Structures are given as structure tokens and as C-alpha cells.
Amino acid sequence: MQLPELFEEKMKGLLGAEYDEFRRSYGKERRQALRVNPAKLSAAEMKERSPFTLEPVPWAKNGFYYGAEDRPGRHPWHEAGVYYIQEPSAMSVAELAGVQPGERVLDLCAAPGGKSTQLAAALEGRGLLVSNEIHPARAKILASNVERMGIPNAVVTNEPPERLSSHFPAFFDRIVVDAPCSGEGMFRKEEQAVLQWSQENVELCARRQQDILEEAAGMLRPGGVLVYSTCTFAPEEDEKSVVRFLLKHPEFSVKKTEAYGGFAPGRPEWVRLTEEEKEGVSPERLEEILASVRDTFRLWPHRLDGEGHYAAVLEKAGAGKAEAPKKAGRVSGKSGRGTVDAEAWKLYEEFAADTLKNCPEGVPMLFGEQLYLLPCELKLAGLKVLRPGLHLGTVKKKRFEPAHALALALRAEEVKRTASYPADSGEIRSWLSGETLPGGEGKGWTLVLVDSFPLGWGKLAGGSLKNHYPKGLRK
Ligand SMILES: C[S@@+](CC[C@H](N)C(=O)[O-])C[C@H]1O[C@@H](n2cnc3c(N)ncnc32)[C@H](O)[C@@H]1O
């Protein structure tokens, strides 16, 4: 595979004797992986039930390499959010974030959603995930992946970091900054990354990373954890980005974190600072910061089965925990911004009484015709919000229509009527292409399952099951 000449020269200079091994990794077959959604089934169950040849990704609890012949993206379990296809070294970041259920977590550069969906899994449906993406089209993809994975407690926003930071000062327990970067670790995956590479772009990315980190710093509560990551090997964007940030922010330090033994340490000797960048810093302090960078992580494609990544776990000084997000307890008609229109709420309750055995919890909020459940009391006014929590459905004149997101966030046993078909059945093929299926007796909203996993809503009436699988997702 052809690589940019300047990139090769640069890496030769950095890696020395190790370069040949690094270069040879570009000739190796890329190993692909998926991450099981623990809200749907455990990793052990997946291993037993899955139609794919799986082998654990050593550093990711729910991560598995799949066989070269497997096509998990085409399997109906993918549409049911049973797993997320993710580059294996990228799975390290959310693991390093050490998220605990119930925390407030921000994923600042989140699309298409690999890290967000992994962070959400660690939250186990409790607490709050704010998943933000600056680019509108990418934010839509992020929202649809959050929905596909059935995440009930995520708010998806589409904002530049500086607008978000003025909204959430010292708010989050954990923040992930998976920064836009020069993507040197994407060369095997995307030819575009090779074509677009230049040293100027590396420098541009490094400047942008400083700006993003600056905004992230203000949104973290004292004692909170910030994970910074890139999928590039350029020290300007990796160790140097961290060093520049630490020089400016004495309240932050590198947190020593236990990780998979195959991760290599950060390389402070690759950091070249200008006189201006070092100004006002004592040599001892500089030495201390540089030494701490050894406790950041490099994932090399010639040392493990993955495309490569960099990650640093940073801690903000100070004690204390952010207040636990205020949860609404069981749903009520009250929203954070007043009362959800009584008629709208009545229509939802009628639907819930007829269809659900167990109602999801949260703070109801009506946006136009769309009814959502926020994971906690949250001020969102003034932000571009794509998904303010779990989308329950649309309130139409005299009726309530449940959302696809609700179907995917429910478990089969929480619903009164289900219709289950095996993944390889003709019914599932027909269903995914939008066809009506023959139904049984009775009438009302029915959760269609592929094997045991919710796939969407159907409406049973007159012996047939009308298809409500979203048109945009049909095959
Ligand atoms: C490496 S990707 C994120 C991948 C994602 N975390 C995942 O695991 O699926 C970086 C993201 O940052 C976004 N981005 C680009 N410029 C940005 C900026 N100035 N501020 C914040 N995000 C930016 C990009 O659109 C891109 O989606």
C-alpha cells in the first residue's frame, strides 16, 4: 500500500529500528470487530448464540473480532442494535474512561457514535450521556445509531464545543474528547485519509484540538476525568496536545490507569515545544509534565490487532462528585419546562396501558408533536438538540403513535404483544423491506422481534400485522 512519502520519512525518524515492523503492518489483512450491546445480551451469550466466528478483543469487555467471511452489518441483529461494528483499537477509549452507572458523561466529538454507544453501555441506562457532534449531517447519523442501540438516557446535540461549554459549566463527571485528527491510523481503512494527509493538516488539527480541549476543561467538575484520544500517530496531535494542555491547566494531570498490557507508553521524547510554548514554565515543571506523558497510551498496528490509536486519561484536581442527575422517578405528566399538554399525555397513557407492561422512566417533554422522556431534569433551551432523550412517539389528533426508538429501547418482556421470527426467516426479510405480515388474533401495537430482540413496531388488526418499520431504514 502506497503511503505519503513525507509521512513515511517522519515515521522512520520517530520509530527507528521499529519502523520496518510498523510498515509491514500495512500489508497485513485488517481485522474487523464488533461490540456487543450488553442491554441486549451478555458477551458470553453472544458467543454462544452468534452466527459469527468471534474472538475477544483483549482490551474491550464486550468487543469481539469477527471472521473475514462474516458480514455482521447485513445481519438483522445489526438493525436490532445487538452490536455496533467498531474498529478494535477505538474500543480502548471508552474502556479507559472508566464510566460508572449513574454518572453524567459527555462525548464531545461523538459521530458516528462508536464511543458514545460504548459509554452508554457502561452507564447501564442510568445517569446521563450528552452526545455531541458539530457537523449537522454527522449528528443525524449519531442520533440514528444512538436510537438503533436502544439507549434511553442519551441527549444528542449538534453544537460547536464553545456553545456547549457555556451551557454546562463544571457539569460532567467524565468527558471524552475523541478529537478530529489527521487520521494516520485510518490509512488501511480509508484511502481518503492517505490522499488528504499533509504536515500542514497535522498542524491544523493540533491547533483545533487545543481549542476543543479548552472547552472540555470547563465542562468537567473538579475530580472528574477527561479522556483525550485520536486515531493518529503524529506526536503533534498526541503527546504534544496533552503537554500543551497540561502547561496551560495546572489543575489537570495524567491519571495513571491500568490498561491492557499490549498498549505502549506515550513518547514524551517526541514532543517538540517552541520557546513561546515553554514561556513561564520552570524546567522542573516541564520535566514533570513530560514524564507523566509516559502514562498515556499508544496502540500500534504492529503490536496489536487494531488500526492504531492514542489515548490519555486526565484528571481534574479537586474533590467531590457532581450532583447525581435529578431523576423524575416514575413518569408523570410534569415536564422540566412545565406540564406536558394533558391531552397528549392522556393519549400516551392509553397507548402505554394497552401495550406496555413496564413504562420507561424519565421527565416527559413535548416538542411540537413529539413526546420525549428526558433522562433527568435538564435545561436544553438554546441548544440544537436532535434527541432530548428517549423518543416515545408522535402525538397525533386523537391518537399516539409509538416511536421506533421506543421499540428498540424496550425488552420483549416489557411489552404485552410481540411477534417473533428467526433472523433467517422470510418474515424478517419481508419485514425489513416494509411488507405487511400475516398476524394472529387481537389488535393493537405489537413489538416485532428478530429472535428475542426488538426490531420495530407493527400494528395488529384484522389478522394482519401492518408494518411501521421506518421508511428510511427499509431494505
Ligand atoms: C474522530 S471523529 C469522532 C468519532 C467518534 N467519537 C466515534 O467513536 O464514533 C471526530 C469528530 O469530531 C468532529 N469535529 C470536527 N471538527 C470539530 C470541532 N471543531 N469541534 C468539535 N468536533 C469537531 C468531526 O465531525 C468528527 O465527527
TrEMBL record:
GO terms for biological process: methylation. Keywords: Cytoplasm, Methyltransferase, RNA-binding, S-adenosyl-L-methionine, Transferase. It comes from the Bacteria. S-adenosyl-L-methionine binds at C109, A110, A111, P112, G113, G114, K115, E133, D178. Residues 17-317 form the SAM-dependent MTase RsmB/NOP-type domain. InterPro entries: Methyltr_RsmF_N, MeTrfase_RsmB-F_NOP2_cat, MeTrfase_RsmB-F_NOP2_dom, Nol1_Nop2_Fmu_2, RCMT, RsmF_methylt_CI, SAM-dependent_MTases_sf. The active site is at C231. One of its GO terms (molecular function) is methyltransferase activity. PANTHER family: 28S RRNA (CYTOSINE(4447)-C(5))-METHYLTRANSFERASE-RELATED (PTHR22807:SF30), NOP2 YEAST -RELATED NOL1/NOP2/FMU SUN DOMAIN-CONTAINING (PTHR22807). Belongs to the class I-like SAM-binding methyltransferase superfamily. RsmB/NOP family. This is RsmF rRNA methyltransferase first C-terminal domain-containing protein.
